[in-house]
Amino acid sequence: MIRAIWEYIRERKWRYVKIAMVLILYDYTLLIPTQVIQRLVDHLSQQTLTQPNFVWDMVLLVGSAILNYLTAFYWQLRLFQSSVHFKATLQGQAFRKLVAMRRPFFEKFRSGDLLTRFTTDVDGMADMAGYGMMVLLFGGGLFAFIIPTMFFISWQLTLISFIPMIFLVVSTYFLSRKQEEYVEQNREAVAQLNDEVLESIEGIRVMRAYSRRDQQVKQFQKKQPVYPKQGTKLPLSSILLDL
């Protein structure tokens, strides 16, 4: 998965370079309000605030807010456009490869597995190319601008603020491991459900011929409640990671 995303980024490296440069500018605009407010507080405490200084600070605040909005709009738009294009490209490549496969390939894999690869797996890779790259680039800008500024203001408070981050990193690691297990369970559940539906559709004439329709419906209804339970674990782990 990582290799496919890396190949896509390398083929469109200049697009991602532009996104990274705009994101750096976006991260810098996040620092301007803090600097302006700090300067205003210093002027007020020292009773040296003048009208020209106040007007200039207000212009900086409004200008940084507008620039922050424009840069955020640009890099998010371009990044998620690339994610959608990556998903379409991946589905096209998978379909062309699937059409070229011979009969032993389809005998080896279940129909549900193939459907899962075209839906759940592709959606996951698209999210990685979108939200994953957003976290990576945004985190890089955070460490490049905000963390050094925190050390410049007060290195003691900065070190103290790192203490909760240790627990966040450890908890994120274990939650990510658990989420990987839920992803595999959800993928298997979706594959089994797809396989059950396809088998029911393909064998509907046989069921009617042998009057097994009611038995097949009861069998499907018996298995069906298990799949939503598997699917709810994955969003729950994602919510915990977002917290």
Pick out its properties:
mainly alpha; 243 residues
How would you summarize the topology of this molecule?
Elements: H1 2-11, H2 13-46, H3 51-100, H4 103-108, H5 111-153, H6 155-202, H7 204-209, H8 213-223, H9 226-242
Helix pairs in contact: 2-3, 2-5, 3-5, 5-6, 6-9
Protein described:
This protein has 243 residues and is an all-alpha fold. The chain has a domain at 166-243. Helix content is 93%, strand content 0%. The chain contains nine helices and no strands. The longest helix has 50 residues, at 51-100. It starts with a helix and ends with a helix.
In short:
This protein is mainly α and 243 residues long. It has nine helices and no strands.
Largest sheet: none
Q: Quaternary arrangement of the chains shown?
A: single chain
Percentage beta strand: under 5%
- What is the N-to-C succession of helices and strands? HHHHHHHHH
Total DSSP E strands: 0
**Intertermini distance:** 26 Å
SS field, number of helical segments:
9
